[in-house]
């Protein structure tokens, strides 16, 4: 079946797809977005049910292999200690992300020049700054101005409560003379723009039924639909079609019933995240591109980066009320973020004070790992004497790009439409392991300085184990660069090989930083949209 | 649902599941927090088995061995855990899920019994002067990022 051709075809209605659509609205081009998932409504979120915690282990798991919904694609992560997690719906993974919103920092874009590792980005912090600001306003970010770990900026809303847990840990960091700051979050601290403020339910990963957490289905998409952007849900793209002239002609996609449609477009924008994007490019094989689309460099799928994380937990004398309030993050220390030549690793990590778990999640091992707490008498002790009193710090490390960490196509596994599924091959790097050792010791120091009675193995994934379900941030698999031999897209997201094909998700990240990426993903997508507008006369030259 | 489940698992088997659940999550010393078997978490366990028939055979095998060993003491349960790890892990997981997702248990642990939306929890936003005091030492040390 054929559809009316469009000017701009965006694949994916998540963080980056929504942002670039917004940037391009003013061009009056006909914009169509194809999304494999559906709309999800607040009444459907599990936090309105009595047994809401169970959803975390079923149809609202962050692990697509556990959910196994029609709109999901399976991911073979047998050769990776970290499982990529996501959500497929209008809003993409902003539906179940935690809304933690630190930006990448100036040095993150210059790791080669500053530290001799990885590569410099062809874009820098100063260039992205106005786009961070625009996106923060649209998403409704809350935070405290004046953080000395960044060039000056002011979040549009005041901070959400850091709570007893955050206040307690802050005093520990102050005691040691270390940096900390209330976290920026894409969660409303006050009613704003028709959305209501956070009710501290602590179920951000199960979708925000209050609408306080900024997922793009409730921030960008209502504006986009009013502006005439067309969104087609239940549309799973099988491949990008290329003409004999080497330009992208459009896509073939499956509707909900599996029927194949062809959709032609003047320009194609890929916004499927760091696993979905290389999967789609590798599945788009043609005579001109036998190794996958836009892959003459061989870099499609390579240099996969996550943010490997582990954690440390302290037991305090008073209840910490950790289940009250947004999951991540209360406060954030970037004391060990920048490279220090006196350490045995390069680059750095953040210490994140996420809040703790409600009881079922705690007992089963936490958000990140399946490692149940003991049964029997010890179980009683943990629940009565430890659970209420804990506060922890996660060590969120900067991953360095390594070619052997990659996304390829699984030879056997497919989604429900028969499209080959991605396979992850990934090893935690030596540099990261050294960071863990350093970070776990520092985290324990901070907890003890904050008044923790002892460091405990809490079964909450904060006892030195690398989290399995830590693959929220999937970056680097179609990286930016000025050299077509070593990168997939140029400095503003256009594929070196295919001049009317753009990539706007975290695949194009050159480095990972040690912060949650969505703020930077969307700023970058807005910047790419802006560059498209500026270059419109010679866009495909 | 309970009737249907009862048809799959005999009364003896149900009693054994209850006994195992009481060992996994015992009551508090003062009895204010009940043990898992005593409040009917077994119904959750058998419902989960009902919904995923692939679990039934391994569960039945493990349960048969547990019947031989008995569930009267922690030592016996350790033996079951050692000899039937697949069964035991499944039972432990279902026990924790079934027990802690109950509103009455949640309330005993200090959480709200109600679904967490729409009411959530009351956490006051810190007054500006408190945040100013707390962050003063951080601000006083000045810039802590590298220019690039």
Oligomeric state, counting identical vs distinct chains: heterodimer
**Secondary-structure element series of chain B:** HHHHHHHH
Number of domains of chain A: 1
The helical percent of chain B reads 55-70%
Order of helices and strands of chain A: EHEHEHHHEHEEEEHEEEHHEEEHEEH
CATH topology of chain A: FAD/NAD(P)-binding domain
Structure description:
Chain A has a single domain (6-531), classed as FAD/NAD(P)-binding domain, CATH 3.50.50. Chain A has eleven helices and 16 strands. Chain A has helices at 15-24, 64-67, 111-115, 125-139, 163-176, 220-226, 273-283, 359-364, 377-386, 430-449, 518-534; strands at residues 6-11, 31-35, 76-79, 181-182, 230-233, 236-242, 248-254, 260-270, 309-315, 331-333, 349-353, 390-397, 406-414, 420-425, 454-456, 501-503. The longest helix of chain A is centred in the last third of the chain and has 20 residues, at 430-449. In chain A, 63% of the residues are buried. The mean pLDDT of chain A is 96. With 148 residues, chain B is mainly α. Chain B has one domain. Chain B has eight helices and no strands. Chain B has helices spanning 2-8, 11-24, 41-51, 56-69, 74-83, 85-100, 103-108, 128-140. Chains A and B meet through helix 5, strand 4, helix 8 and helix 9 of A and helix 6, helix 7 and helix 8 of B.
């Amino acid at each position: 079946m054929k559809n009316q051709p469009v000017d701009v075809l965006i694949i994916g209605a998540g963080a980056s797809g929504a942002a670039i659509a917004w940037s391009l609205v003013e061009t009056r081009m006909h914009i169509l977005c194809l999304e494999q998932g559906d709309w999800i409504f607040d009444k459907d979120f599990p936090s309105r049910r009595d047994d809401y915690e169970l959803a975390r282990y079923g149809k609202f798991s962050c692990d697509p292999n556990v959910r196994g919904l029609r709109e999901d694609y399976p991911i073979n992560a047998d050769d990776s200690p970290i499982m990529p997690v996501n959500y497929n719906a209008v809003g993409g993974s902003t539906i179940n992300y935690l809304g933690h919103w630190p930006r990448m920092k100036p040095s993150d874009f210059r790791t080669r020049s500053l530290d001799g590792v990885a590569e410099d980005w062809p874009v820098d912090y100063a260039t992205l700054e106005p786009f961070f600001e625009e996106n923060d306003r649209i998403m409704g970010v809350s935070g405290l101005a004046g953080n000395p770990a960044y060039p000056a900026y002011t979040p549009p809303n005041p901070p959400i409560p850091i709570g007893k847990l955050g206040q307690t840990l802050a005093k520990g960091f102050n005691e040691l003379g270390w940096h900390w700051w209330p976290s920026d979050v894409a969660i409303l601290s006050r009613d704003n723009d028709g959305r209501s403020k956070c009710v501290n339910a602590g179920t951000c990963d199960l979708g925000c039924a209050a609408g306080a957490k900024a997922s793009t289905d409730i921030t960008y998409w209502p504006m986009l639909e009013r502006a005439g952007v067309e969104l087609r849900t239940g549309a799973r793209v099988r491949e990008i079609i290329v003409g004999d002239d080497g330009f992208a002609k459009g896509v073939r996609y499956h509707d909900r019933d599996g029927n194949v449609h062809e959709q032609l477009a003047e320009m194609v924008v890929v916004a499927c995240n760091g696993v979905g994007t290389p999967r789609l490019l590798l599945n788009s094989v043609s005579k001109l591109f036998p190794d996958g689309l836009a892959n003459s460099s061989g870099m499609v799928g390579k240099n996969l980066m996550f943010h490997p994380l582990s954690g440390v937990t302290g037991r305090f004398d008073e209840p910490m009320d950790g289940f009250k309030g947004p999951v991540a993050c209360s406060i954030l220390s970037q004391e060990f973020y920048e490279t220090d030549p006196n350490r045995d690793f390069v680059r750095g990590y953040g210490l994140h004070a996420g809040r703790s778990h409600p009881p079922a999640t705690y007992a089963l091992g936490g958000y990140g790992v399946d490692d149940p707490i003991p049964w029997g008498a010890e179980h009683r002790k943990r629940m009565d004497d430890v659970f209420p009193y804990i506060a922890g710090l996660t060590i969120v490390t900067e991953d360095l790009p390594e070619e052997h960490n990659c996304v390829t196509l699984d030879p056997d596994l497919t989604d429900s439409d028969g499209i080959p599924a991605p396979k992850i091959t990934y090893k935690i790097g030596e540099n990261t392991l050294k960071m863990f050792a350093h970070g776990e010791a520092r985290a324990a120091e901070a907890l003890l300085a904050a008044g923790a009675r002892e460091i405990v193995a809490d079964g909450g994934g904060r006892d030195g184990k690398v989290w399995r379900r830590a693959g929220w941030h999937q970056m680097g698999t179609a990286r930016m660069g000025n050299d077509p031999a070593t990168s997939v897209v140029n400095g503003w997201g256009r594929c070196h090989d295919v001049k009317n094909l753009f990539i706007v998700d975290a695949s194009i990240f050159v480095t990972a930083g040690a912060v949650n990426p969505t703020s930077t993903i969307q700023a970058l997508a807005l910047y790419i949209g802006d560059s498209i507008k500026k270059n419109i006369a010679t866009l495909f030259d | 649902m309970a009737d249907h489940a009862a048809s799959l698992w005999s009364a003896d088997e149900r009693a054994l599941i209850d006994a195992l659940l009481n060992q996994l999550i015992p009551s508090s010393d003062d009895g204010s927090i009940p043990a898992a078997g005593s409040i009917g978490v077994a119904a959750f366990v058998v419902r989960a088995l009902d919904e995923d028939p692939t679990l039934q055979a391994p569960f039945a095998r493990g349960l048969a061995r547990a019947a031989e060993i008995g569930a009267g003491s922690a030592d016996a349960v350790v033996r079951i855990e050692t000899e039937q790890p697949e069964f035991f892990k499944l039972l432990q997981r279902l026990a924790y899920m079934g027990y802690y997702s109950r509103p009455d248990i949640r309330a005993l642990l200090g959480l709200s019994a109600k679904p967490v939306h729409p009411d959530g929890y009351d956490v006051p936003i810190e007054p500006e002067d408190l945040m100013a005091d707390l962050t003063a030492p951080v601000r006083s040390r000045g810039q802590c990022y590298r220019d690039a």
